[in-house]
């Protein structure tokens, strides 16, 4: 999926998990783009190019940073230093990214096991799924925002 869809899915996940905390939505959104640190050509990877390049050449794309191990590790690392809503939103935002990528391709969900999980799609289906998912997430976020303002 595209980085914008990953951001939106992370936002929605962080928001839902915490019962409507917008700070958690922001943390989830940011965490939702972090797994693409393994792709030095991605928008997020370009920001951290040296690190992204090393991760990509060492592990490959959609491996370690797209695994349950990575998501749980992020939560465990943040746990002693943050409030519960922070580490929960971060771990959930990463999981939302992984699930999104499983809709448009395969990831090594159980890394270091080399078993890939997900649905292979054509470039056309990738775009359709990505855009449809983004629209659904925008509707959800817009609806929740509107209800909050009223």
From TrEMBL:
InterPro entries: YdjM, YdjM-like. Pfam families: YdjM. The chain crosses the membrane at residues 63-79, 124-142. The keyword Amino-acid biosynthesis does not apply. The keyword Cell wall biogenesis/degradation does not apply. Keywords: Membrane, Transmembrane, Transmembrane helix. PANTHER family: INNER MEMBRANE PROTEIN YBCI-RELATED. This is Hydrolase. It comes from Lentibacillus amyloliquefaciens.
């Amino acid at each position: 999926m595209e980085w914008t869809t990953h951001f939106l899915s992370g936002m929605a996940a962080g928001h839902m998990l915490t019962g409507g905390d917008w700070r958690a939505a922001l943390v989830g959104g940011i965490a939702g783009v972090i797994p693409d640190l393994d792709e030095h050509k991605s928008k997020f990877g370009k920001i951290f190019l040296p690190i992204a390049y090393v991760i990509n050449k060492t592990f490959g794309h959609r491996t370690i940073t797209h695994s349950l191990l990575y998501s749980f590790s992020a939560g465990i690392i943040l746990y002693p230093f943050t409030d519960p809503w922070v580490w929960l939103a971060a771990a959930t935002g990463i999981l939302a990214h992984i699930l999104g990528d499983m809709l448009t391709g395969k990831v090594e969900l159980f890394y270091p096991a080399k078993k890939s999980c997900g649905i292979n799609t054509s470039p056309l289906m990738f775009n359709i799924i990505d855009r449809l998912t983004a629209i659904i997430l925008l509707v959800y976020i817009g609806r929740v925002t509107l209800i909050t303002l009223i």
